[in-house]
Amino acid sequence: MALSGLEIYKLLPKTNCKDCGFPTCLAFAMKLAQKQVELAACPHVTEAAQAALSEAAAPPIRLITLSSNGNKLEVGNETVLYRHEKTFFHQPGIFVRVTDDLPLDEIKARTAEVDSYVVDYVGIPLSYDGIAISYTSGNPEQFGEAVKAVCDTTHKLLILIAGDPVAVKAGLAAADGRTPLVCAANAENWRRVALAAKNAKAPLVVRVDDGDLDALAELAESIAKFGVDDLVLDPGVRGFNESLATMTHIRRLALKENFRALGYPIITFPGEGAASQLDEVTLAGQQIAKYAGFVVLDHFTPASAYALLVLRANIYTDPQKPIQVEPGVYPINNPGPDAPLMVTTNFSITYFSVANEVESSGLPGWLLVADAEGMSVLTAWAAGKFDAERIAKAVKESGAAGKISHKQVILPGHVAVLMGELEEELPGWEIKVGPREAVDLPAFMRTS
Prior knowledge:
Elements: H1 5-11, H2 25-33, H3 47-52, H4 54-57, E1 64-68, E2 71-75, E3 93-99, H5 104-116, E4 119-121, E5 124-126, E6 130-134, H6 140-153, E7 157-161, H7 165-174, E8 181-185, H8 190-200, E9 204-207, H9 213-226, E10 231-234, H10 240-256, E11 267-268, H11 277-289, E12 294-297, H12 302-315, E13 328-332, E14 341-345, H13 348-361, E15 365-370, H14 377-382, H15 388-397, E16 408-411, H16 419-425, E17 430-433, H17 441-447
């Protein structure tokens, strides 16, 4: 049973040393009880207290790890309901399902299509995490061959979807050297399926029907006592409303009530609750936001993949730390010393908006990225993070002057007001004011 804040406080040093970042040990204890900090933040806790506090210090949602040939996916350990409270740490894995009754060549072709899909999003490579192989043939040997065909085609992660313990063993044997997710144990087969997962040291999905959370918690507790600690929950709901309500309920019970029996990641199958591919993508997006740990899709298209991957990337970034690029001078289209020097901030979307427009124009240029703490141009200017002094400092310290034969710098049009101040900070330099929008940069560069 989880400990209260006062019970935790009694086990702490009670020195109020503030080394944990809180003013008192009691304040730290209260945060620890709410799963908002980790016990490791206290450097003075004794080993005996650590043992006693292990349950209180354990994350409310267990961390589940899949691995395959150097690839790894960690899901779980979340501590908040809403990302603005802190952040979401471990993004859900997205998988595409193939069935073992398909010809092996087709299984390999579908796997290769998923395997090869990578898209660059503001400097971040995005791709799906793996392949789920579904046992539909009724032949365990054929299931093993399908798993092997996938393993021969990709190093991505695996989910083995089979309720037959014999098929599970065949799939695990074919996936030798990898740690797949076994799906799924239910009230009828759980002992034999759990034994196979336990022997393979693989995480296991626990499945019930129709969102019966009492039955799900009871089954999860039974399997945990059996010796399989790494569990994933499938509450058996598939539609939009049922999925949202049930998954939110599970998350609340785990975080707010410290209900350990449901303190595991959730797996979803949006294709089973959708009437069309569009509905599948829409439902998958809902489940990525609230609160899937693994999402298994039945269809793959580049368009839907891009939408889901960008959505996931945006949700699973720290809202207090914007995506940034490294400050410095970036060459575009092999610029020479006479190419123009443009300046912008290090907010990734701003950088890539400018860089992509210049690159697609074919015109050479130097892009000076100033450190604005990851803010866009207007936001950084309003916050005092993108002013004449900072821009001048970036020009001087980046080595930009050594790359060009002129002394001209182009300001973003939104901060034209800085022109006079920047002239004072950079004596001898000509300050030009560029367009307000990145899309207008090519035309400006051709005429200036």
